[in-house]
Amino acid sequence: MNDYKYYLDYGIYDIQDGKYADAIEKFDKSLELKNNWEIPFFYRAVAHQALENFDDAILDYTKALEFNPKMT
Prior knowledge:
Layout: H1 4-16, H2 20-33, H3 38-50, H4 54-67
């Protein structure tokens, strides 16, 4: 499957199941396919934050805000 939305959706499901590392992998794949939108950056930041990878979370939150300043 090469659809960036597919990976985004399944990454969100992984977050809901507490599978944060799996979610990050899916968001990475989504971003490989389309890296110019804020949604996967935001959710990847959420997963990083849950894993206490705070530096990575801040980078992703910042990137999400660059694409859409209303993501606060």
